[in-house]
Amino acid sequence: QVQLVESGGGLVQPGGSLRLSCAASGFTFSIVPMRWYRRAPGKEREFVAHISGNGGTTNYADSVKGRFTISRDNAKSTVFLQMNSLKPEDTAVYYCTAASQYWGQGTQVTVSS
């Protein structure tokens, strides 16, 4: 069955960096667009970043543009989210999704001094 397993979250100071990973299995990874979403405490889930199956197209929420980078390794069926210049408002549970149809369990990112 389809599985998406996120990792790489944690506690980081403002201005710091984290790299999230999402390992996928159970489907043909290389043809499926992947996305990252996040849900902050008390807020609705929001889109963060998108990458096409071949990695040639990426899109970002305005709030993370220029700070976050989405990438993928189709040989390893893994999608990444490199997060730089982190702000307290980036604190959230981050989820990866396969075409917004299958979802991982999420990984907590906390940005605090």
Please describe what this structure looks like.
With 113 residues, the chain is mostly beta strands. Helix content is 0%, strand content 51%. A hairpin with a 5-residue loop joins strand 4 (34-39) and strand 5. The model has no long low-confidence stretch (mean pLDDT 97).
Largest sheet: 7 strands, mixed
Helices and strands, in N-to-C order?
A: EEEEEEEEEEE
The share of residues in extended strands comes to over 45%
**Low-pLDDT segments:** none
**What's the helical proportion of residues?**
under 10%
For the record, give the distance between the C-alpha atoms at the N and C termini, rounded to a whole number: 40 Å
Structural class: mainly beta
Output the number of helix runs.
Answer: 0
**Total number of beta strands:** 11
What are the defining features of this structure?
mainly beta, 7-stranded mixed β-sheet, 113 residues
Can you give me a brief rundown of this structure?
The chain is mainly beta and 113 residues long. It has strands spanning 3-7, 10-12, 18-25, 34-39, 45-51, 58-60, 68-73, 78-83, 92-98, 102-103, 107-111. The protein is globular and about 40 Å long.
Q: What's the helix and strand layout?
A:
Blueprint: E1 3-7, E2 10-12, E3 18-25, E4 34-39, E5 45-51, E6 58-60, E7 68-73, E8 78-83, E9 92-98, E10 102-103, E11 107-111
Parallel strand pairs: 2-11
Antiparallel strand pairs: 1-3, 3-8, 4-5, 4-9, 5-6, 7-8, 9-10, 9-11
